[in-house]
Write a structure and sequence with these properties.
Length: 1312
């Protein structure tokens, strides 16, 4: 095929250049890869082996994204405003609705997920007076100098321009049949359009107040717009350029132009464009067309019949691209898709292959523009079909950049690597950053992880060596065996004294919870309570106040209520708890009317947010039915002392606003509440903002937990919600800004069971956890073989043959997730301070049960944001209660408890048919918590069965209280019923067993020498207080903690305070840190603090070894960059061959072949053996025969070993460059005249300079060498050169004498 690449002075076809040889393919095959960071998957010969002679490069594999964006069907992309990125638009006669880019790449950079634009409209341009029939013809254009975009349209015989609710029309005469070809905006409310009617082209020019029309006698088959005011028209003999001044410049090609596209292929100059032209036999690319009516050069590629009829629908329009692409996607109908890559000597053709879902029918091109990242240009283009986009395999990470995925080139598919699970939005470096069942996640530098086996048989998920969830066929049990201390492990059947309840074995006897309802008298003013909330404000007279003490308290200390007259007041909790039945409940009223509504079903407080100079913001949110109202209060504290206070004043109000949520609002954090898929946040600026998640429904019920970002070491909030039967997690930082990648429709990618090969388990072999020992038996994560499934009560239940009464169940969308506090002091380092539980009602065995699924530590154990591993447990049967249904809405409230060390929080469920309470049991010294004592009871007889919307509940705090029986209350709740008649109840709960360290019905303190006891004396100890003990065996006192562990205040031997986790090889010691907090690393053996986490060098943010300035894996401080050797320095100190990447604060290696570069794409100098290409600023490899080259890759300055100068002598030009040719078969090196100097493949070098398998007559192999030398002068043939005893034949007159040393030639035969 012929190619041309010549500069021409003006319009017109360029002369052809010489044809390139097939050998050039080998030289240039990497060019396209360098332009977009995509490496070919093999040698150029692979295409020829496959019989694909139309391809110059191996196929480009396009991989399907995990989930889709807004469908490309019926929508298009345009840059509506010249300084803003492209948007996805939907044109209608009433307006242009658009979806803007919604990837917050400054927060999280990963373009592989496949969703780039907002699901809900970002905005709309309102249009008027456009006929409905005009919608299919509408074209959108950005005004070059800014202002509102312009729209051109055609309806019947009426053509018009519209912008921002204004329209100017032109009507064509009868008998004309106009069609709109192209349009271009030339300024605010100014533009041009080409309209074809018959054989005439009319230029329609929009000027103030009218459309001016001028005709041109051009028979065109199509037209495209270029720079503002420029058009290119296809004709039967070539193409014509229409300039803004009306000049027509024809370019004859002697054949019809089939298609045109104005784009940016190589031209970066904003005042010039490139034009792609397709004829029946050629592809022409005109480069650098400008306002002067000239172009700079043209590339011509003659097409074989097997690669003709090219379609340009996938070429990005010039209005969308601001940077050159360096490649084009072209397709032949539905038969083939090509990627055409630029090279200065030719165009390279690469076939694009993808999965079966990547069909050419309906394929589009999606612009992906935004911040740049290492190895990725800021403007990218993704192929798309329907709602699915496709990413080149290299950008997906198939070449090793993402070790968490495994790519299959023959199928153009990818999946998670063994041991991994798809876990989006946890790491920008890994798509499958989660660990499979049976493994836990250990962090590595640069947002990468490794998955290591959990200890013990059947363990599905673990943290710090403690199993928190078991595989199918196993039950989670904490018990003692063989006289040893209690340990948590996975068992096939429950031990004696335990019973199976779901997927756990719990003690057959559990401390019961006593519950008492006390009906409260009416309020003193005769009002009733509509809604209530805990508050950090308090009353001074009849005004709202806050103080430093009230704002800094661990929990809000007051109870704010809204009364039936819509006024606010503070309920006297101390009076209520001291004497709940002795008189009217006291409420201190607050002056003012804040919520002018007829009722309130929910009242929630958000905040506080403290701004500079002591300004305080606090918000109250009220909800009734489908409306929500909010009031933001503010004041400025008078000082920093605890008693310094200020009076709250109304800063702003909002609402009433309609909401679609059907469930009660939930406070997810002190500053965030959620109603369905709507979130309300009192942000850091003190403003109340609303965020809607379009990917979830209005019935969504989220929860929120705090984790530690392992990259920054800072707290990060995650939102937990149900997606079908799976618990998923989403980062609040992205949700709060509406990031488009917060999708949940990716369930087909979730494969929790994905074990590593056997050798993959070796890193943890022999490792022993801190809180127990592995159990012999099945490998980690193995499943029992006897599982079967059946449906029970509409819920999927998996039953097991072993384990009486055992079964596991999955929650549904009607269940409620809650985040229960485990006590921040209990978990240090990066471990989250709480657990996620999902609770609801299910039918099993013909009886309704209250159940939970406990996701201990949330996503932390395995790093999974999908299919998080949990343990299901039946809490209590509820069958005897009337009105129980599995999908009835209910309240699920998380409460923090005080004074109960082993029970830091409780779950309270207000179901229409019952009230349930469950205490979270967190034993002292253990990381894992579990459902503890629980109780359900019906409501009092004078509280009629009702729905959740009629119930409100809040925790009461203050002075200690007692149940009517005299027992101390552990929990006090105020339950409000808004029905008729309105009623309030004091609900008190007490645990029959006292917390550790106390005894008796009044839970009095044990003697100081006891951990647990039955009385006050030292002799009443059940477990003595040890100076040292392992948390897994609290009754076994140790003289000292094992090496590597330290005792806390209770004597529990825990990991060193510097560790995030630790382990021992044999369970005895020494224990060493296995994970460190941010900014620390494990000290190696031999150092003073060996096995502990020690601070990195002061210059390091992260490191692989403590204290060393050369062991940094991340740098601390602005302007510091990580060098390849592990040092941190300024940008100017980045070594040669690297460039300072500000997004990673790292000196990143330049692209292949670059000795110096500006960024991850563009080179400024090349290494030896590479050629600088100035247009795309890349380094091209010299031809394989060259050690260095100049001008073009095969113009050699020196020949590589195995090659010689084509002309037989070194070139003499300036510079001295020429062609190198192959020395010859089996010739390793040669002289310029072609004589070999050395041979390959075991061949022998002859004296004549050739390579042969056997030496020629008169020669033989030289001893120890690979050359042929003369035989001994008596031999004519020999087996070794110069050796008299190696003759095979003799010279004339000689006789061959064979003897024990070989054979030699003699003149006479010796006598016997």
């Amino acid at each position: 095929m012929a190619v041309t690449a010549r500069r021409v002075p003006g319009p017109g076809p360029a002369p052809e250049a010489r044809s390139s040889s097939l050998r050039m393919c080998l030289v240039l095959m990497l060019v396209g890869a360098l332009l977009q960071g995509i490496r070919p998957l093999g040698g150029w010969a692979e295409a020829a082996i496959a019989g694909d002679y139309d391809a110059d490069m191996p196929p480009l594999l396009a991989m399907a994204s995990p989930y889709g964006s807004v469908s490309v069907a019926g929508l298009s992309f345009e840059r509506l405003y010249p300084t803003e990125p492209p948007v996805q638009i939907h044109l209608q006669n009433t307006g242009c609705q658009f979806h803007g880019p919604a990837m917050q790449e400054d927060l999280f950079f990963d373009r592989r997920l496949g969703s780039f634009f907002s699901k809900t409209p970002s905005g709309k341009v309102v249009l008027a007076d456009i006929p409905l029939e005009a919608s299919p013809s509408m074209l959108a254009m950005a005004a070059p100098s800014g202002g509102e975009p312009l729209f051109a349209w055609l309806s019947g015989k009426v053509m018009g321009f519209s912008w921002h609710a204004d329209t100017i029309q032109h009507t064509f005469a009868e008998g004309q049949d106009p069609s709109l070809l192209a349009a271009s905006a030339t300024g605010p409310s100014a533009g041009r359009a080409l309209v074809k009617h018959g054989n005439t082209i009319s230029l329609m020019v929009l000027v103030p107040g009218e459309i001016q029309k001028s005709g041109m006698a051009i028979d065109t088959t199509g037209a495209v717009a270029g720079l503002p005011g420029h058009f290119f028209l296809a004709t039967a003999t070539g193409w014509t350029w229409l300039l803004p001044n009306g000049t027509l410049i024809p370019t004859p090609l002697n054949e019809a132009v089939l298609r045109l596209a104005a784009t940016r292929y190589l031209t970066a100059d904003p005042d010039r464009v490139d034009l792609v032209v397709v004829t029946a036999s050629r592809l022409l690319i005109y480069l650098g067309l400008g306002d002067d009516g000239t172009w700079q050069s043209v590339l011509t590629n003659f097409q074989p019949t097997s690669r003709n009829n090219l379609n340009l629908s996938l070429v990005p329009r010039v209005s969308l691209a601001t940077l050159p692409t360096g490649y084009l996607y072209l397709h032949q109908g539905t038969s083939a898709l090509w990627r055409v890559v630029y090279h200065p000597t030719r165009l390279l053709w690469q076939r694009v292959l993808g999965p079966s879902s990547m069909t050419l029918t309906g394929m589009g091109l999606v612009p992906v523009h935004g911040a740049s990242a290492p190895g990725q240009p800021p403007e990218q283009w993704r192929l798309a079909v329907g709602m699915r986009t496709f990413t080149p395999g290299e950008l997906l990470g198939c070449a090793g950049a993402d070790p968490s995925i495994a790519c299959h080139p023959t199928e153009a598919k990818w999946e998670c690597a063994p041991g991994r699970v798809y876990s989006p939005l946890t790491s920008s470096a890994e798509l499958c950053a989660g660990c499979a069942d049976g493994y836990y996640r250990a962090p590595l530098p640069k947002q990468q992880y490794r998955c290591l086996p959990c200890p013990g048989a059947g363990c599905r998920a673990c943290v710090a060596g403690v199993c928190v969830a078991c595989a199918e066929g196993y039950l989670l049990e904490r018990s003692a065996h063989g006289g040893g201390p209690p340990v948590t492990r996975c068992v096939s059947d429950c031990s004696p004294g335990f019973q199976a309840e779901g997927a756990v074995c719990r003690p057959a006897t559990m401390p019961p919870v006593a519950v008492a309802f006390t009906k409260l008298p009416s309020l003193a003013n005769g009002q009733t309570i509509l809604s209530l909330t805990r508050s950090r404000a308090y009353a001074q007279g009849d005004q709202l106040y806050v103080s430093n003490a009230s704002l800094e308290a661990p929990e809000p200390g007051a109870l704010l209520v809204m009364l039936s007259d819509r006024s606010l007041g503070f309920l006297d909790m101390d009076q209520l708890l001291a004497s709940p039945t002795s008189g009217p409940v006291s409420v201190t009223g607050i002056s003012g009317s804040f919520f002018p509504v007829s009722s309130s079903t929910s009242l929630l407080e958000l905040g506080p947010v403290v701004l500079p100079q002591g300004e305080v913001r606090l918000a109250l949110v009220s909800m009734h039915g489908g409306q929500i109202l909010a009031v933001v209060f503010q004041c400025v504290l008078s000082g920093s002392g605890p008693a310094d206070e200020c009076q709250l004043q109304v800063q702003s109000t909002s609402g009433p606003a309609n909401i679609s949520g059907t469930n009660p609002p939930r406070r997810l954090s002190p500053t965030v509440l959620a109603v369905g898929n709507q979130h309300f946040e009192l942000n850091a600026a003190g403003s109340l903002v609303t965020v809607t998640d379009p990917d979830t429904s209005s019935s969504d019920i989220p929860s929120m937990g705090t984790h530690v970002d392992r990259l920054t070491g800072l707290p990060a909030s995650w939102v937990y919600r149900m997606s079908g039967s799976q618990l998923i997690a989403q980062p609040w930082a992205l949700l709060r800004v509406g990031d488009s990648r917060l999708k949940t429709a990716d369930g087909l990618l979730i494969k929790p069971i994905n074990p590593l090969p056997a050798e993959g388990m070796s890193p943890a072999s022999g490792s022993t956890c801190l809180w127990g020992c592995p159990e012999a038996g099945r490998p980690a994560g193995a499943s029992a073989p006897d599982a079967e499934g059946h449906a029970d009560g509409g819920r999927t239940v998996r039953s097991r043959a072993s384990g009486t009464g055992s079964f596991s169940f999955e929650p549904t969308g009607s269940w409620r997730p809650v985040y229960l506090d485990a006590g921040a002091a209990r978990r240090s380092g990066p471990l989250p301070p709480g657990d996620v539980l999902v609770t609801g009602v299910l039918s099993h065995g013909g009886t309704w049960h209250w159940g939970v699924v406990n996701y201990s530590l949330g996503l932390e154990p395995q790093g999974r944001t999908r299919a998080i591993a949990g343990t299901s447990e039946l809490l209590a049967p509820v069958g005897p209660l009337a009105g129980v249904t599995g999908n009835a809405p209910f309240h699920a409230v998380a409460l923090r408890l005080a004074g109960l060390p082993e029970y830091p929080s409780a779950l309270v469920v207000l179901h229409p048919a019952f009230l349930g309470v469950m205490l979270l049991h967190c034993p002292v010294g253990e990381l894992a918590c579990r459902p503890g004592p629980r109780h359900i009871s019906p409501y009092p007889a004078d509280l009629e069965q009702t729905g959740h919307e009629s119930l409100g509940v809040e925790q009461l705090v203050g002075q200690p209280s007692r149940l009517p029986s005299g027992r101390p209350a552990s929990i006090n709740l105020l339950l409000v019923y808004r029905g008729l008649p309105a009623t309030s109840f004091l609900v008190q709960m007490a645990i029959d067993s006292c917390p550790s360290g106390t005894y008796g019905p009044l839970c009095l303190a044990c003697h100081g020498s006891c951990q647990t006891c039955t009385g006050p004396d030292a002799g009443d100890c059940v477990l003595p207080k040890c100076t040292a003990f392992l948390p897994s065996a609290p009754g076994v006192c140790l003289s000292a903690c094992p090496a590597g562990l330290v005792a806390d205040a209770t004597g529990a031997c825990l990991c060193h305070g510097s560790c995030a986790a630790c382990a021992s090889a044999d369970g005895v010691g020494p224990f060493i840190c296995t994970a460190c907090p941010s900014g620390m690393a494990v000290a190696p053996a031999g150092e003073q603090q060996a096995g502990q986490c020690v601070s990195c060098h002061a210059s390091c943010r992260e490191c692989s070894a403590p204290g060393s300035a050369g062991a940094c894996t991340g740098c601390l401080g602005s302007g510091m960059f990580l060098q390849p050797g592990g040092m941190c320095s300024g940008a100017v100190d980045c070594p040669a061959g690297t460039w300072p990447d500000g997004s990673m604060d790292e000196c990143v290696a330049c692209p292949t072949g670059c000795s110096a570069c500006r960024d991850a794409v563009k080179c400024s100098a090349c290494e030896a053996g590479f050629l600088f290409e100035s247009v795309m600023q890349v380094c091209l490899p010299c031809a394989p025969e060259c050690t260095a080259c100049v001008g073009v890759p095969d113009n050699c300055l020196a020949c590589r070993t195995g090659y010689r100068w084509e002309d037989g002598a070194p070139p003499t030009g300036t510079p001295p460059a020429g062609k190198c040719i192959f020395c010859g078969p089996s010739c390793a090196s040669c002289q310029d005249d072609g004589q070999c100097l050395a041979c390959t493949n075991g061949k022998l070098l002859t004296p004549a300079g050739t390579c042969t398998a056997t030496c020629p007559s008169g020669t033989g192999p030289v001893a120890g060498g690979a050359v042929c030398g003369p035989c001994h002068d008596t031999c004519s043939l020999c087996t070794m050169a110069g050796v008299a005893d190696s003759c095979v034949a003799c010279v004339q007159g000689g006789l061959l004498l064979r003897h024990t040393e070989g054979a030699s030639c003699v003149e006479n035969c010796p006598n016997k």
